[in-house]
């Protein structure tokens, strides 16, 4: 029953494929028996599914006691089916629904991953640029990201060509119809401080002002040499944009907002 080719193509682990199959079988059984309030236990290893019929809501007490004389009102009567004994409509339903469940799980997993990367800087390779240069596509290690023209740095736009590698600020991630979309920026005011923060996570950084491509003013609680070195590296990542570090005393300045 499991579509092994699809599982491999989506990169789904066996455990997750088993969960998808369990959900698919439960849905198929519920629809076939028209019993959506019935408890169903699926054992993938034993290849069995047990439905617990409620007495007398689903099975009349007389019918239930004919099967099990010890059944009383409000009990559940278990009915165990082997996968091999499933009627054809159940099998057909599983074959139809299972790929969709797998894709939904994969998309949800990707969405959770990229949701956790929002407000972070990630490396990506430009793989396509719109002919009218309204947007570009970025390969983020298998996930495609979109950077609209309004998020470009105009000064470096001539560098946006296929194969070029940049650091991008993750603006947001969305999920719709099993499609994960990741939106990127190079001109966000947060990008310089995020680059610095990812290099030196124990130091505070907050960019208070930025002319993207030219200069950023980053407040920090340290101007030690390793912080200055990180600023030089950030300047290289931003194609020469000047990073001015401004020492802010925690006693004189408001708390740093999260980045």
Q: What topology does this entry show?
A:
Layout: H1 4-10, H2 14-33, E1 39-43, E2 48-54, H3 61-67, E3 76-82, H4 88-115, E4 121-129, E5 135-140, E6 143-148, E7 165-176, E8 179-185, H5 191-199, E9 205-211, E10 215-220, H6 225-237, E11 242-247
Parallel strand pairs: 6-8, 10-11
Antiparallel strand pairs: 1-2, 2-3, 4-5, 4-7, 5-6, 7-8, 9-10
Helix pairs in contact: 2-4, 5-6
What labels would you give this structure?
alpha+beta; OB fold (Dihydrolipoamide Acetyltransferase, E2P); GMP Synthetase, Chain A, domain 3; single chain; elongated; N Utilization Substance Protein A, Chain:P, domain 4; 3 domains; five-stranded mixed beta barrel; 259 residues
Condensed summary:
The chain has 259 residues and is α+β, with helices and mostly antiparallel strands. It is built from six helices and eleven strands.
Task: Outline the structure in words.
The protein has 259 residues and is of the alpha+beta class. The chain has 3 domains: 4-115, 2-Layer Sandwich (N Utilization Substance Protein A, Chain:P, domain 4), CATH 3.30.1480; 121-185, Nucleic acid-binding proteins (OB fold (Dihydrolipoamide Acetyltransferase, E2P)); 191-247, 2-Layer Sandwich (GMP Synthetase, Chain A, domain 3). It contains 6 helices and 11 strands. The protein has helices spanning 4-10, 14-33, 61-67, 88-115, 191-199, 225-237, and strands at residues 39-43, 48-54, 76-82, 121-129, 135-140, 143-148, 165-176, 179-185, 205-211, 215-220, 242-247. Strands 4-5-6-8-7 form a 5-stranded mixed barrel. Strands 1-2-3 form a 3-stranded antiparallel beta sheet, covered by helices on one side. Strand 9 and strand 10 form a beta hairpin. The protein starts with a helix and ends in a 12-residue tail after the last strand. 25% of the residues are buried.
